[in-house]
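Morning - iron/sulfur cluster inputs below, output right after.
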Amino acid sequence: MPFKDIKSLSREELRQFLSDNGHKPYRADQIRVWLFCQMKQTYEGLNIPAELCELLETNFRIKSLNEETKMESQDGTIKWLYKTADGLPVETVMIPTETRASVCVSTQSGCAMNCAFCRTARMGLNRSLESGEILEQIINVHRYFLENAQERKVTNVVFMGMGEPLMNLDAVHRACVCLHDQKTFSMGKGRLTISTSGVAPKISELLERGTPCQLAVSLVAADNETRESLMPINKTWNLTELLNAVDSYLAQSGEWVTLEYILIKDKTCTEAAAQNLIRIVKPRRCKVNAIVLNNNENPELQAPSEQEINEFLEIVRAKAVQINIRNSRGCDIYAACGQLAEALNGRML
Ligand code: SF4
């Protein structure tokens, strides 16, 4: 790609760039408000000297994502497919409720983690996104609300779209800092959630960097054998290593961690699986968000029956473990968990 997105620069980097090129550093805030609050995609109308405008245009991209398709679910969920400046697919999902609008952003185009239940895995990894490309997904949803006269704002951002966020931590950290910044998006850290498939050594880096976010971990299964069959990452960092990393995060941050669990027939929704889950969650400051496996093309992976789900929940709740069933949203447009993949010409991967 010829240029970096200007939105990928931190405030300090932009100030430095301006001062290195003979311009007043205070202009950085003016430019950032224009990009992040006014959501502009040209410099037309911005009150800066013409030569500064030219300097920015010759050094940076101001727009990174081109909308290819927009699909609307019966439940109000919207999924956008974008192409990056170098032609790679990226999907973003907006999930509305009465009081919230959560945006699920992609951090990579495709993903290398190869989880068995996930369509994105079948794309492989194209590349990691710049922080400007991540932020533009959120800005685009804000702009969509504005253009459609909806009095909504993005209230929550979850880093759970295409890609493994901790494999692109620098850009994800930058995006979180910008979203948290009072002069731009001003979103509290409780509204930003990074979800990892289990890149254990990177979990502590979130605290070292001071990334403003909450942590969610895709546990998916609660024993090594089942987890390994569903998530190859478990061969690199097994449950013991992952839970050690979670424990040290819990100890250092003093916060709660969300464990995401997927209910799969005969695999993770059995009595033995319930006991394994209890053993993991009970001693930790964790809550479990469980979802029932979504439509996928793997014949070995099926959703459990309602009775099996209820029996599982009864066992877990009897031990006072906090477990919530999350309803999947946007299944009809392949926008739910594990379903994001390039959607072109009506064809799903
Ligand atoms: S579930 Fe997440 S980490 Fe696993 S392949 Fe899909 S996008 Fe990647």
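Note: The mean pLDDT is 92.

O.
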